[in-house]
From TrEMBL:
The lineage of its organism: Bacteria, Bacillati, Actinomycetota, Actinomycetes, Mycobacteriales. It comes from the Bacteria. It comes from Rhodococcus opacus (strain B4). This is Putative oxidoreductase. One of its GO terms (molecular function) is magnesium ion binding. InterPro entries: 2-oxoacid:Fd_oxidoreductase, THDP-binding. Transmembrane segments: none annotated.
Length: 140
């Protein structure tokens, strides 16, 4: 895959540890931020612990959490204990996550939870060749 599309891969981890390695790695690299992909199935399985650890350590990590209702890492079965997006947002806010952006085809669907200061919504781009200036960008 073209490196310009995926960025730099800085390490590998076990299921559920996504992003947590940045806690130890950050002081030794020139980047001050990490972007980590995480599916909702893995988040529900054990990835929420990595998010919790990063918040507790003050690590500068942006998690992109794909909410699709499957544990893709282990063949796509349904996620046990899965939560809806408002429940995940409430959990992340309770854990101390500083900022949450919900990207969706219908931003007004999440109007009630975007009332929280740390939460915003953004429309999904239908034409990926055009930037979406109204969407908040990560610092990464």
């Amino acid at each position: 895959m073209d490196e310009d599309r995926v960025g730099n891969i800085v390490g590998l981890t076990q299921m559920g540890g996504e992003g947590a390695a940045w806690i130890e790695l950050a002081p030794f690299v020139s980047h001050d931020h990490m972007l980590q992909n995480l599916g909702d199935g893995t988040y529900h399985h054990s990835g929420s612990l990595a998010v919790r650890a990063c918040v507790a350590a003050g690590s500068n990590v942006t998690y992109k959490l794909l909410h699709n209702g499957a544990v893709a890492m282990t063949s796509g079965q349904q996620a046990v204990g899965k939560m809806a997006i408002p429940e995940i947002v409430a959990e992340l806010l309770a854990e101390g996550v500083a900022r949450i952006v919900i990207t969706t085809e219908v931003p007004k669907r999440y109007k009630r939870i975007s009332a929280f200061r740390a939460v915003s919504t953004c429309a999904i781009a239908t034409d990926w060749s055009k930037p979406r200036p109204s969407c908040p960008r990560s610092r990464g």
